[in-house]
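User: Please fill in residues for this 131-position structure.
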């Protein structure tokens, strides 16, 4: 899978956090990999590893988002936008292998694909404060 496809898989798995209790997430992760067509084992390992790293930092990421997104709070954001922002903020702040510009661009592309009409602009505006 390409990096973009892997990022999309991470987004889809991370999105489940919004609808499930944390103690249910191991089962949700197993279901995700059964339902999604992970072409190669190494892709599934990459997706799972990055998902777990993001999940470990969710409180920190949400605190950063609440601090930077003036006039917005993570509880008011759409679940799609919030998930995209969490992934991108993780990549910007904690993943040195992803340049900030790439993380922002990829987040905007995810917002165009999965979000509402204004999502890409919103995501870009919030992430610009992290760059």
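Assistant: Residues filled in for all 131 positions:
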């Amino acid at each position: 899978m390409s990096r973009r496809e892997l990022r999309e898989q991470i987004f889809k798995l991370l999105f489940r956090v919004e609808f499930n209790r944390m103690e249910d997430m191991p089962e949700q992760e197993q279901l995700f990999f059964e339902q999604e067509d992970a072409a190669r084992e190494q892709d599934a390992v990459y997706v799972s590893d990055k998902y777990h790293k993001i999940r470990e930092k969710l409180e920190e990421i949400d605190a950063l988002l609440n601090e930077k997104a003036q006039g917005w709070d993570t509880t008011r954001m759409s679940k799609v936008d919030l998930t995209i922002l969490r992934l991108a903020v993780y990549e910007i702040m904690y993943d040195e292998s992803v340049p900030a510009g790439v993380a922002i661009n990829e987040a905007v592309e995810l917002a165009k694909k999965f979000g509402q009409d204004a999502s890409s602009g919103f995501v870009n505006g919030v992430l610009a404060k992290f760059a």
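For context: Residues 3-128 form a domain with the N-utilizing Substance Protein B Homolog; Chain A fold (CATH 1.10.940.10).
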